[in-house]
Amino acid sequence: MSKTPLDTVEHAAATPDVELPWAELGLKKDEYERVVEILGRRPTGAELAMYSVMWSEHCSYKSSKVHLRQFGEKAPESDALLVGIGENAGVVDVGQGYAVTFKVESHNHPSYVEPYQGAATGVGGIVRDIIAMGARPVAVVDPLRFGAADHPDTKRVLPGVVAGIGGYGNCLGLPNIGGEVVFDACYQGNPLVNAGAIGVMRHEDIHLAKASGAGNKVILYGARTGGDGIGGASILASETFDDAKPSKRPAVQVGDPFQEKLLIECTLEAFAEKLVVGIQDLGAAGLSCATSELASNGSGGMRVTLDDVPLRDSTLSPEEILMSESQERMCAVVEPEKVDRFLEICDKWDVIATVIGEVTDGDRLEIYWHGGKIVDVDPRTVAHDGPVYERPYARPSWQDELQADDANKLPRPGTGEELKDQVLKLVGSPNQASKQWITQQYDHFVQGNTVLAQPEDSGMIRIDEASGLGVAIATDGNGRYAKLDPYAGAQLALAEAYRNVATTGAKPLAVSDCLNFGSPEDPAVMWQFAEAVRGLADGCRQLGTPVTGGNVSLYNQTGEAAIHPTPVVAVLGVIDDVARRTPVAFQEDGQLLYLLGDTREEFGGSAWSQVVHDHLGGLPPKVDLERERLLAEILISASRDGMIDSAHDLSDGGLVQAVVESALLGGKGARLVVPDGLDAFTFLFSESAGRAVVAVPRSEEVRFNDMCGARGLPATRVGVVDGDTVEVQGEFALTLAELREAHEGTIPALLG
Amino acid sequence: MTARIGVVTFPGSLDDRDTQRAIRVAGAEPVALWHKDKDLKQVDAVVLCGGFSYGDYLRAGAIARFSPVMDTVIDQARAGMPVLGICNGFQILTEAHLLPGGMLGNDHLHFICRDQKLRVENADTSWTTDYTAGQEIHIPLKNMDGRYVADRRTLDELEAEGRVAFRYLDFNPNGSLNDIAGITNAAGNVVGLMPHPEHAVEPLIGTGRTDGLPFFTSILKKLVNA
User: Fold this and answer.
1) Hey, is A135 helix, strand or coil?
2) PurM-like C-terminal domain location, by residue (chain A) (predicted)?
């Protein structure tokens, strides 16, 4: 694209009729015309590169913006929120002067094209977002979705993704404490690789992405800029895969976790010495994004000399340098008198750092190359004034039929023997089976603060050694529920993550989300998206947990077939003393099992309907967020006051799945009695929301019952921790050995 | 008095702060050492901690072995200073020829992180006197390149001289020869192992066991009583 003569601003003004490849760069005709209108002339090649990448769906949220506004408009009052939507990541006050930043992002498309590097750089990107806020990263989580477990391509994608997450995260020294792995044919060709990270800092250490103070220097530091990932953001993330198009392989970036580890340490050292005015990581859209966002969020303009950018490949054109998504780079704004010290710290860590420009007192972003001015724009028009689409949306014609196909009418097991067979089938099905084969490829011990990690209900990290203050995080999302009813599905994802945090004893505080959907150009998909956002925003308002940020991934679609709408919700919680955390595993024979909440005949979208009948239809479980809040309060109180020794939330697979998991983890069985008013099948397999099963020491039974009674939470005694079988009285018994074989053998057999 | 125990940070070290904490929990004083600095700051012993020093590029531990700090560590270790190498530190010790043999990629080709059962085979080294020989312990293990290998003569020598300090029990997580998890030099001052005792020093954290603490109390007693 580089031309002779150099396509400067002057040259562009003088040659209005030159045709630029705006369509190849992913811009629509009206978008290109808008660029021309903003500039009052045709853009230079470099300007076109910047606008095209910043106005892509991935960077501009042009299709989703009008809906996402609800997260702000409906945000509940929360004293905990220190930094909200719009920054690199949200920041939450967790007390004792600590602030926690967390966020979930997607790296879906790259991970399908190149599973290892796609997933690895997903971790790298989210971690840089966390550092850019001023925090030390303390943990990562990875919600993943793949095609059918026995599909040959899953065996290509999954091991690569898992090795990539492990290879990068393990090398950064970040414990991987949570996430999910879900298989469904709908994700065939469109795996979802979401990555979340948590960081901790003191309140006074919060940093923001803005370039202020004329004369301050702009320093690019980290890896050299290369030809990887050029146009990745605009081309790769914004268009649906189509067999007819040429391979897009070169657009995936390549990660170097060692470089990122150095970047973390040197950035934190610079923060500690208060050397940084503003900071931005280089992720999607690389320098285009970093310079335009820093400049547009600050008070002045910015002048950058692109010739000073350290290159891995000296033949790169200025447009390519601006678009490159080479990993492990950051951009800092530093006062002139502190530049030397900043460079010294970078040198200590063997990190290349270069002054590439400075903040000006104007309001333009100007970029020079070989002495010529190749960019002269109002940075806001690049970073914030991208197109906004009111995409048409409509409830799909098939929705009624889907909901009418009632899962509650499916044939049910009639005998104890049939129940037993279906329990074994359920706990051994790929979605319900143990994911240890995957999670043991992640380091969950590093940093020495991991209190809970998968397969616990939430991951928990100690953040203060003296007081025991800790944070918990859970991510959840059920695409099957959301397909049946996207509004309820989003709320069920929120409810489950909220419940999972509370089950471990932590108080839910705030939400991040990763919204994975098909093509926004399909009105049915857009309706799913609109409904899910509305549901999540309403739910967050009701639960008092604000959305602090997140990510939207659209175009997860091959041809006409979109993925199930998959809003993945992360809930962050705080616990005053991690010593009071509640684990999933049964602790002691003789403890009493209580089922909290109401159990109804709810099988729409259930694991049972999928595993036994390969069915998806009907309505998802009913949402009752007030009940979720009450349940959470009870679980937190019971944990704090030592009334329960183990707890497990009930979600996919129902009560039997939860009990089997607690039994296998604790190496202790359970005897269950079907309570009055319920049949054995509904008792075991229903997926009614707002429930948990807890183990209560006998000495605490009265106190625990009194608390539930006084607060109006149904608590039903359903059994006792005992022996080495899981027995449902009068129906069947399964030994822990049989259950273990079914539960733990599946994934290694498929993937090992 | 207490003992000063150095922890080296290489670029890519990950468990340096954890190891410092473990030393503190045991009651000794952790001292941060920097890879570019030959000065060991008057420490009584050194721990080379886990991580991916220099990105594990070339070969795990191969570059770290040539860093300035290692010149001093190698000299001092030969003169009798206690040195413990954990995971990447073990790999560095073999690269530095302070311990024999070397580490290859895990036989199953995956990173593995698990709570690993071990048997203490030698409770007479500087780092293991608070264990008893034959004691069975659980220590977290996490590595990509943990398969201990050596030629037959070296293995025979290690076995004959009781220099296999720790052995994997029930499950060999990486294909190590003779189920070797850790070894010592003949003098007993240099010990290396793949599992991470620094991750098992506090109840509640990690696996919830404190089976790794005796490493740090052993060395503290030895140094204080010296």
Assistant:
1) coil
2) 214-369, 589-725
Q: Residue A76 gets which letter from DSSP? A: P
- The CA distance from A494 to A498, in Å, is 6
B142 with A443: Cβ contact below 8 A: yes
Query: In the structure encoding, which two tokens stand for residue A59, read together?
Result: 């960077």
> pLDDT (tens digit, 9 = 90+) per residue, A378-428?
999 999 889 999 999 999 999 999 999 999 999 999 999 999 999 999 999
Whole-angstrom distance, CA of residue A104 vs CA of residue A511: 10
Kindly list the structural domains of chain B, giving each domain's residue range(s) and its CATH number in brackets, ordered by start. 4-225 (3.40.50.880)
Measuring CA to CA, how many Å separate A169 from each of A91, A106, A140, B17, B110?
A: 22, 16, 8, 17, 14
Range of weakest confidence among A279-283, A441-445, A519-523: A279-283
Tell me what the pLDDT averaged over chain A comes to: 93
Q: List active site positions of A.
A: 58, 107
CB contact under 8 A, A166 and B206: no
The torsion angles phi and psi of A331, rounded to 5 degrees, stand at -130, 125
Question: Could you report the per-residue pLDDT of B123-144, keeping only the tens digit for each?
Answer: 999 999 999 999 999 999 999 9
Alpha-carbon distance A41 to B153, whole Å?
78
A115 to A119, A159, A167: CA distances (angstroms): 6, 8, 12
Chain B hits for A445, CB-CB cut-off 8 Å, are: 113, 140, 142, 196, 199, 206-207
Tell me the per-residue pLDDT of A160-197, one tens digit each, with 9 for 90 and over.
999 999 999 999 999 999 999 999 999 999 999 999 99
| Yes or no: domain A582-752 corresponds to CATH 1.10.760.10 | no
A108 labelled binding-site residue: yes
- What CA–CA distances, in Å, run from A502 to A217, A557, B208? 46, 35, 21
**Ranges of H-type helices in A16-133:** 29-39, 45-54, 57-60, 65-73, 108-113, 115-132
Q: What is the mean pLDDT of residues B59-78?
A: 95
